Amino acid sequence: MTEIFTRIEHSRTADEVLQQIERLILEGVLGAGDRLPGERDLSARFDVSRPILRDALKALEARGLIESRHGGGTFVADIVGEVFAPPMAQLIRSHRKAASDYLEYRREIESVAAELAARRATEADRALLTGIVERMKAAHAAADFEAEAEADVDLHNAVGECAHNIVLLHTLRSCYRLLADDVFYNRSLIYVLPGARDRLLEQHCAIRDAICAADPEAARKAARAHIDFVEQAAAEAERASEWQRVSRLRLQQRGGG
Questions:
Q1: Which CATH number fits domain 14-76: 3.10.310.40, 1.10.10.10, 1.25.40.20, 3.40.50.150?
Q2: How far is it, in rounded angstroms, from Cα 118 to Cα 122?
Q3: 82-253: which CATH number, 1.10.760.10, 1.20.120.530, 3.10.350.10, 3.20.20.30?
């Protein structure tokens, strides 16, 4: 495994340790919930004294970037999730217009991310995308909705990472948190639409293929086509769900339920 913490070469101050950990969080190398190594191990990796490390960790905690859990260690704080705190997520969920605005936003930002990823993806990035797509294919073949949905979010997050734009990365991560939580629409309803799972898999593969082929225009088009389909499928799933609800009420009213 690649070492992400590097030896402090110069004055070995708490500020240098703080800046290195901040940079790892900013670049998305360290994500929400990641546990930092123990104090002894981490001070050795940085080649600094434990008092210096403690000062750096205290400063990071004061900034809300890490949190200490009693008896459990030190973890990266969920600063991405705070972009859409539960009250805001609930407010968004209760207003239908937010769903169309969300997909409009995703259509634009994901097409930019895919285009940048096609221009900037490294060999390691392309391997990451391929690994996620293979996991998605396996889940698809096994009809494992939960695993396929998880791979879906992972792939979109990975495209954001491959774009190598820090602001874009964290914006997308907050956006996909809402996707994972089914805030705007129930993905399980989309997955049961005839042919939808096959279409979604094809679209995800097309995005991966365009990025790996270093074709920015194809990547942009594939990303936009994917969101166009999701928007159409979400509307269709909502209509079907409403029709089923009305049908059940009619049946119940007639004494058949």
A1: 1.10.10.10
A2: 9
A3: 1.20.120.530
**pLDDT tens by residue, 192-227:** 788 999 999 999 999 999 999 999 999 999 999 999
Q: Mean pLDDT throughout 83-112?
A: 79
